[in-house]
Design goal:
By secondary structure, this protein is an all-beta fold. It contains no helices and seven strands. Strands 1-2-7-4-5 form a five-stranded antiparallel β-sheet, with no helix packed on it.
Length: 74
């Protein structure tokens, strides 16, 4: 139920279509600051409420059931 992809090291998209929360393990997030711009409840280029990321290392990223998360590199 999980799908994730990285577009040109600038946009990170994670999607969980299952009925249970889950975790993407060891996601290689490129160096830099990442702003959350989309979730299942809101989308805004100004950013939405939620966790930003600091890249440069692999990370475990939790995602809720039937949720979507989109980050852009600042």
């Amino acid at each position: 139920g999980l799908l994730g992809y990285l577009v040109r090291d600038r946009v990170l998209v994670l999607l969980n279509v299952s009925e249970k929360p889950d975790t993407f393990t060891q996601v290689p997030v490129p160096a830099g600051k990442w702003k959350l711009v989309g979730s299942s409840s809101a989308v805004s280029t100004e950013g939405v409420r939620g966790q930003g990321l600091t890249g440069g290392k692999a990370q475990d990223l939790k995602i809720g059931a039937k949720d979507l998360m989109i980050w852009v590199k600042e």
